[in-house]
Amino acid sequence: MDKRRFSIQAVSALLHNANLKGFLTGKIYQGAGKNICVPGLNCYSCPGAVGACPIGSLQGFLSGLKFRFPYYVLGFLIFFGALLGRAVCGFLCPFGFFQELLHKIPFPIKKNSFAGDRQLRWVKYAVLLLMVVILPLCFALTPFFCKYLCPAGTLSGILLAVHDSMLRAQLGGIFLWKAFVLAVVIVGCLIVFRPFCKYLCPLGAIYGFFNRIALYRMDLDADRCVSCGKCKKVCQMGVDPVRECNSAECIRCGDCVRNCPVNAIHMGIKYGQAKKHSEKTTAL
Amino acid sequence: MKRNIPCMLLASAGVVLIGIGIALGQPGQVLMKAVRICMECVGIG
Ligand code: SF4
Ligand code: SF4
What we know:
Chain A has helices at residues 3-16, 20-25, 54-62, 71-84, 87-92, 94-104, 117-120, 123-138, 144-148, 151-163, 165-170, 173-191, 195-199, 202-210, 230-234, 255-259, 277-283, and strands at residues 217-220, 265-268. Chain A is globular and about 60 Å long. Chain A contains 17 helices and 2 strands. The radius of gyration of chain B is 17 Å and the shape is elongated. Residues 40-41, 89, 93, 95-96, 194, 196-197, 201, 203-204 of chain A line the site of one iron/sulfur cluster.
């Protein structure tokens, strides 16, 4: 385990949810921090949340009664994406951290590659396009992703309902559906590494677009690489860093970097363009 | 350093968009939504 990354994830989850007394009282934070979009997926209705969820805020604009172009929210998404890409997922996102913690729980089946995995990765782009953009634009006041899918919101609902009997009394069919989705995600996490990130998260889909050009990137030194395949084997996101070290699926966890026996993979903000592995093979 | 130009341009574009959003009062709209319990998020609908 990478202790440094684990500590950053823990601190980030705490900072996203610094309103600790909210967990005891069941009251959500109402201060100025909620003017600002946080980088990770963190429901603003979570009693701990001190900032605004970018995906929830985006749908808020798109599903408004009057169309408002979401300059502010897009600005945050582009800013975080350009600097970090999916390093947000690997280091900062509380829901990503939650999934990783669940995956550490011993379970008889642990499986990261299976038939259909590649195809399922496309679902998150459909979720982004349909549930976050198109449907909220077509149906006013209905943030489809929040309403029908987001498991972070369901967790918030559970945390609030523990303290609030009025809220508990209102939970009905939609909550049951969302609780089912949450249960599938939780059981999925016991088996697969970050299934929500891989297959469903619209925020991960957005940050993935930036991986190629983000300031924080990876780079493969093809002259050093001995094609041992260790990096591909250890990658729990199913990336082959030799073929595509800036793949949209890479969350910058650094497992491949640490496991490369010849230090051929580098991650950070100071590296240049990767030398293509094919260039190296032709040169040989 | 050249490779960092596109991301710096994009990051700056992000800052500009945030600025436009602020000028249009959008932080207040984000705040309004975020300080109330979102019924859709928590599963009431
Ligand atoms: S994919 Fe989504 S839930 Fe997963 S770490 Fe990234 S932003 Fe968070
Ligand atoms: S390619 Fe490397 S850094 Fe990216 S997810 Fe896989 S192991 Fe982590």
